[in-house]
Specification:
50% helix; 11 strands; seven-stranded mixed β-sheet
């Protein structure tokens, strides 16, 4: 029942920390990376977190600033030690040190992990997600393991995820979305999870990975649309003409697919031509060449 507060970018260590907490019956509590020390203090104290996991020096400094207001927090564990070589506070602990302790524990009790997992129940609280607090103090929603599983399995009925699929983790981990369709999906389907090198390289990483499944916030999709429109303004007249000619056809066929309308099949030959000369090259440039499901 203990809570673990986690703050940082979408990195493997966030997944590992959240799953580790849940494996022993604990709850992971996400904190948005741009939170101020005051906001970090409120969420960490409000959820009664006993462990904090932070990405780097910037996030660790927030906890050090509010340390006297977090009497329950026993350790702050960090996974990116750049700039922290001069930190010798025993309250802080490197992620690698925790992993080493875990290996020692597994050597002494090889079945402990499986035993703890077996004790878990569907109504165990897996995560706590806090609101942004724009209209008042943030409010925490307690999400059970069964809730996360149901969220993903409902999606699975529409589009099955395969073990060979790539999922690019971009949605903030403090939201329920990435926990349901990223962490939970990975545990059930066993698909590959990819992480961007950084926020600034997200679009570049998207093209390199070309995932089959993406779940992006609306502002990220809007950013992609803006970039496409801007580049179309600077391209050759022929490419601009083809784009303007086939884009309405693409919208028409997309609406037909959503409404399951099979009457106007005369649009399909035009769409296939547009896909050949416009849409397929554009998807490749955007990293969506292998996409099966794109959700916001």
């Amino acid at each position: 029942g203990d809570r673990v507060a986690i703050i940082g970018d979408n990195d493997p260590q966030w997944y590992w920390a959240a799953l580790a907490a849940q494996s022993v019956g604990g709850t992971s509590v996400g904190v948005f990376i741009d939170s101020t020390p005051t906001e970090v203090q409120f969420i960490t104290a409000h959820c009664d977190a006993v462990i904090a996991v932070a990405k780097d020096q910037e996030q660790v400094d927030k906890f050090l600033e509010i340390r006297d207001q977090l009497p329950l927090v026993k350790k702050v564990i960090y996974w990116d030690d750049i700039g922290m070589w001069g930190y010798h506070d025993p309250w802080l602990m490197r992620f690698e040190e925790v992993e080493a302790l875990g290996r020692e524990c597994a050597a002494q009790n090889p079945t402990l992990f499986e035993d703890l997992i077996a004790q878990g129940k569907g109504d165990d609280i897996a995560i706590m997600c806090y609101t942004s607090g724009t209209t008042g103090v943030p409010k925490g929603a307690m999400i059970a393991q069964s809730n996360l599983i149901h969220s993903y399995t409902s999606y699975y009925e529409i589009e099955a995820r395969r073990p060979t699929d790539d999922h690019l983790s971009l949605t903030p981990m403090a939201w329920i979305t990435e926990n349901a369709f990223g962490v939970t999906a990975h545990c059930i389907a066993g698909n590959v999870v990819d992480f961007p090198e950084g926020v600034q390289t997200a679009l570049e990483n998207l093209r390199e990975i070309a995932p089959q499944n993406v779940i992006f916030a609306s502002r990220f999709w809007e950013n992609i649309v803006s970039q496409v429109q801007a580049k179309m303004m600077d391209t050759s007249p022929l490419k601009r003409l083809l784009y303007r000619m086939f884009l309405p056809i693409g919208y028409k066929v997309a609406d037909m697919r959503v409404s399951r309308d099979k009457r106007n099949r005369l649009w399909l030959p035009l769409y296939f031509l547009g896909d050949l000369v416009v849409f397929a090259p554009l998807r490749d440039k955007l990293g969506l060449s292998r996409i099966r499901t794109a959700i916001t």
